[in-house]
Amino acid sequence: MKIELQNKKVFIKNQGLKKEIHPFWFRERVNGNDYIDKTTQQRLFDPTKLERNIKIDFLNLSKDFLEVTFDDGAYTKLAIQNILKEFQNIDDLEYIEKVQWDSSFNKSNNFRFTENFSEKEEMYKALINFYKYGFVIFNNVPTQNNYIINFANSIGSIRRTNFGEFFNVKSKPNPNDLAYTSLALAPHTDNPYRKPVPCIQMLHCIENKVNGGLSTLVDGFTVTEKLKKDFPNYYKILTEVKVRFQFIDQTVVLEDWSEIIKLNEKGKFKQVRFSPRLDFVPGMEIDKLEIYYTAREKISELYSSENYKLQFKLEPGDLLMIDNYRLLHGRTSYNANEGERFLQGCYIDYDSTEGKLNHLRRKFNL
Ligand code: OGA
Ligand code: ZN
């Protein structure tokens, strides 16, 4: 893609095709101090009130910038890179390529927490890793006073759920979720019955004095691609049939319908929802149900397979941040009589985390 000028007009050239860019598109982007508020970066003019038939008086194209002067006197200087990016319709995060991983994952993906961490360049690196791998681990995060709330809010905004602003994961009497027992939890995603499903999960280890209770992670993206390649008919049915996810508590019944593997508008992997404790397959013809059950069994087998699973022990101060749309997590069983195992968890939204990433990129000129 490149920019070309001809007769006071700007063209974008892409794979041999040359198309004019609307002059008004540039006029909307006029960015001097008279047009954009310095502090908020918001427009001081209303483009819907401008003369639409605006003309370009003067153009200057250099290697990195395009300067445009309009017949109403407005002038702007725009980075070519930004113009091209907007025409590619790619948002920033698509530049961070998702890296598929399996049990052989051996990248360093731990970051040592220090004071004011969310404003440091290290946080930028951690968030990049999060978007690449779907998880990241912070070490040495203070374990006092529900610190997870401070930590979560320093990155994004907390998504409150029916379990509260944050929740305590420990074995307790009369649990309202199997997470609050010492049973093993097979790989699952959290809250598949919510609309929308909480995006990012944090699990902060406060104490872990048991031998079992190991944390497990699986890359749902890797497993989806494997299924697509080796078992296309299973992939097809799991991406087509919507199942009902349900959670029942004393004061609430939550439900949502979704495919186990959700694809985006381009037919690419977008989200996995998997929790065999909470899903209800709809009534369908016997043959279709037969295929569906076989497909679900296969994907469950892949999620639980040693080929894809990471297994590790969280130590006090470790905080695991997981993409709940991409990864599955779980734990091995433990014996609650051996000592205390106590994690605190919460969820945050994607967009605020993206916002933090973009802010740090701007701040450190990355
Ligand atoms: C959960 C969960 C894992 C663990 O609370 O959602 O999966 O390690 N917990 O206890
Ligand atoms: Zn969980």
Q: Examine the coordinates and then state which fold CATH places here, giving the name of the CATH topology of the largest domain.
A: Double-stranded beta-helix
CATH superfamily of the largest domain: Clavaminate synthase-like
Main sheet specs: 6 strands, mixed
Strand order of the largest sheet: 7-8-19-11-21-9
Shape: globular
CATH class of the largest domain: Alpha Beta
The CATH architecture category of the largest domain equals 4-Layer Sandwich
Structural class: alpha+beta
Rounded to the nearest angstrom, the radius of gyration is 25 Å
Structure description:
This protein is globular. The mean pLDDT is 95. It has helices at residues 23-27, 80-88, 121-133, 147-155, 220-230, 232-240, 286-304, 350-363, and strands at residues 2-6, 9-14, 17-20, 56-61, 65-70, 75-79, 110-112, 135-139, 167-169, 185-188, 200-208, 215-219, 242-248, 253-259, 261-263, 269-272, 279-280, 309-312, 319-323, 327-331, 341-348. It is an alpha+beta fold and 366 residues long. Helix content is 24%, strand content 29%. It starts with a strand and ends with a helix. The chain has two domains: 2-90, NE0471 N-terminal domain-like (2-Layer Sandwich), CATH 3.30.2020; 110-362, Double-stranded beta-helix (4-Layer Sandwich), CATH 3.60.130. It contains eight helices and 21 strands. The strands form six sheets. Strands 7-8-19-11-21-9 form a six-stranded mixed sheet. Zinc ion binds next to loops.
